[in-house]
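Field reference: sequence -> structure
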Amino acid sequence: MKHTQAYDGSTDLGEDGRAAAGGSRLVGSDRVLAVLKELARYPDGVGLEELTRAVGSPKPTVHRALGALRRAGLADQDARGRYGLGDEFLRMAFAHHEARPEHVRIRPVLEALAHRFGETAHYAVLDGHEVVYRAKVDPPTGAVRLTSTIGGRNPAHTTAVGKLLLTGRLSTLEEVEAWVGDAPLERRTPRTRCTAADLHRELEFTRERGYGVDDQENETGVNCLALPVHLTSPTVPSGAVSLSALAYRTPLAALVDALDEIRALLGPPGSLREPPR
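Structure field:
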């Protein structure tokens, strides 16, 4: 995933966080949050100089933001002087994720799929032009595993989950064209569908089948089959479960042949919904 947000913070705004007249600068808590988000990009830590360049704010400003984050336990500094996310941040993130109702309800399904097929199972939701992976279970055995991460993103048009969920948003070619916009769709592999017309046809096929496929369109050597999940409504999918397989050991045709078994493991629509209180 490319880092696309530009931080315009070349002028220190002072501790009151007010933007200069006519400017659009990071202010107050926004500045601290920008530093926190940038730290997440450096698992091995990052020096103050590099972090300052990445955020685009003066060094004293970034240093003050780091001080606030360290006092809160959200950032740490190691013996080399490099900064990273703090243990308190990790504790909160993982505790929150493990306790989320959708994670609690979907994880047994993902574990069953990963165990049965020996491939990686995901739960993902649609966010604009991308899908976000909310849960992931790797197979119990297998030397090669996927590099996807919880919280990671991929273009919706290149993934089985994305195309499946887009069928509920985009019905006509005109809607697809408006969604695509003027910028060309990213081509991840030679098989990626990058025009509105091609994507529209694929969404029509997906809608008719009731499941989504990715035939090495997002990553060469990896294919995927996705089915809708109804965690909040019996009619509108909250997201989708996918079985992502290495093509050399589980071809896409094998996933399609196992569709009934995958559906059985997922259960009928609404079976994963939280019971009424």
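Note: The longest helix spans residues 101-117.
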